[in-house]
Design brief:
Belongs to the AB hydrolase superfamily. AB hydrolase 4 family. GO terms for molecular function: acetylesterase activity; monoacylglycerol lipase activity; phospholipase A1 activity; phospholipase A2 activity. Keywords: Hydrolase, Lipid metabolism, Membrane, Phospholipid metabolism, Serine esterase, Signal-anchor, Transmembrane, Transmembrane helix. InterPro entries: AB_hydrolase_1, AB_hydrolase_4_CS, AB_hydrolase_4_sf, AB_hydrolase_fold, ABHD4. The structure is a single chain. The protein has helices at about 1-30, 35-55, 65-75, 90-100, 155-170, 200-210, 225-235, 255-260, 265-285, 285-290, 295, 305-315, 320-325, 360, 390-405, and strands at about 60, 110-115, 120-125, 145, 170-175, 215-220, 245, 340-345, 365-370. With about 425 residues, the chain is α/β, with parallel strands linked by helices. The chain has a domain at about 255-325. The protein has a 9-stranded mixed β-sheet with strand order 1-9-8-7-6-4-5-3-2, with helices on both faces. The protein is globular, with a radius of gyration of 27 Å. Mean pLDDT is about 90; it is low at about 1-30.
Length: about 425
């Protein structure tokens, strides 16, 4: 029967077609030769791009040969290729993800409130590390003073990581929280800014008086680094710190604010930071509104507007430009008299690379600038899943250890 044969052949054909279709669906993109080739080709191209354009050795600029050799010899991290996390090496992604992907080690602080000359109070968080095996004598235990960023406290992940690194090395830490940011009340209508270093001077004098036999160095992050660099430039040879390390500092405030006012960066960072600053002001409205128009401050849309309405007014500057000029550490690099290592990423939108103090650093044998190609702002993520240590943490650990253990070789860098 011809019709029966045709019907049988059609059934066999459709059965085979159905079987083949199901197999193709089951195998999917990765099982097909073409799909697999596309995936492998893309992966190879991405790997080549990453290794050629992303993973690079940092640039080390030092004002003197002695400091340069010290860093090369005692801090191998400055000569090693920095491999940013391959799936989030872009500047903004690194900056945004760091607070979420990095672990927050538990640290049990001892809080101390000290009084400033104007009657205000400053909150210090001590990590005494009394279980230190390498430095059991608390009177001589090396100590690191840590300065967080613009709205940061001792509970920021980057601060906790530095405390953890210090704990492993047997050192003590003390975190300087700017006025009003860590839960304490404002007793006077004054907060803080990058240009004014009076509170930092009070803190350093207090810490040195408290542990007068212990060597002391300092580390500052972002605005904390700017404040620290401004302090070193102002005080010059009066500074008794053994060394300083600064991370992601904004060197020229005019250029920093201009960068953050570009549309995408204004959307991602500027508006958020402005709201954080306003929230801090609003928490202390009762005492601040005695001297300042807080309602006007709360209407600011950018950091620049906030500074024009609040910061520059609080610290008595004739204009916001005068404040920004005074807050920019680039003008004070030439006066730094203690060993200072500065780490910046070339793609940091908070601190654009064309404003890095390259020429000023070259003129000062006490200063070195380490520039990575990538890393963002306080990012520096590395490894497949960057939960624990970052490139920044390794720089901190190696430089701190080098200063405390071999600092005598830095006594005369001229």
């Amino acid at each position: 029967n011809i019709m029966g044969i045709k019907k049988l052949n059609f059934n066999v054909f459709t059965s085979d077609l159905s079987h083949d279709f199901k197999n193709q669906v089951k195998v999917g993109l990765f099982g097909s030769g073409v799909g697999l080739s596309v995936v492998l080709g893309f992966s190879a191209a991405y790997a080549c791009y990453y290794l050629i354009s992303v993973a690079k050795k940092p640039i080390l600029i030092a004002g003197g040969k002695k400091f340069h050799q010290f860093l090369r010899g005692k801090c191998p991290v400055v000569s090693e290729t920095y491999y940013p996390t391959f799936w989030c090496w872009e500047s903004r992604v690194q900056t945004l993800l760091r607070p979420f992907v990095t672990a927050k080690p538990w640290v049990n602080y001892r809080n101390e409130l000290i009084t400033a000359p104007d009657g205000g109070q400053i909150s210090l968080d001590w990590f005494d590390n009394d279980e230190s095996a390498s430095h059991p004598d608390q009177s001589t235990r090396p100590t690191v003073l840590l300065l967080p960023g613009l709205t940061g406290t001792s509970r920021e992940s980057y601060i906790l990581h530095m405390v953890q690194q210090s704990r492993d090395l047997g050192y003590r830490c003390v975190v300087f929280n700017n006025r009003g940011v860590s839960g304490e009340k404002l007793l006077t209508p004054r907060t803080y800014c990058a240009a004014n270093t009076e509170d930092l001077e009070v803190v350093i004098e207090h810490v040195q008086r408290t542990i007068d036999k212990a060597p002391l160095m300092a580390a500052g992050v972002s605005m904390g680094g700017m404040m620290l660099a401004n302090y070193l430039g102002r005080k010059g040879s009066e500074v008794r710190l053994k060394g300083v390390v600064v991370f992601s500092a904004g060197w020229d405030v005019f250029e920093c604010t201009a960068s953050l006012e570009k549309p995408l960066d204004r959307f991602l960072f500027n508006s958020y930071l402005t709201s954080c600053l306003q929230a801090s002001v609003d928490r202390h409205r009762t005492i601040l509104e005695k001297k300042y128009d807080i309602d006007h401050v709360m209407k600011a849309k950018t950091i620049r507007e906030f500074d024009e309405r609040f910061t520059s007014v609080m610290f008595g500057y004739p204009s916001n430009d005068d404040y920004y000029r005074d807050a920019s550490p680039i003008h004070k690099i030439k006066s730094v008299q203690v060993p200072m290592l500065c780490l910046n990423a070339a793609d940091d939108v908070f601190s654009p690379n064309h404003a890095f103090p390259v020429e000023a650093v070259k003129q000062n044998p006490n200063v070195a600038l380490l520039i990575t190609c990538h890393g963002g702002h306080i990012g520096f993520l590395e490894g497949l899943w960057p939960r624990q240590s970052t490139y920044m943490d390794r720089v901190f650990r190696q430089f701190t250890k080098a200063v405390f253990e071999n600092g005598s070789s830095l006594d005369d860098l001229h």
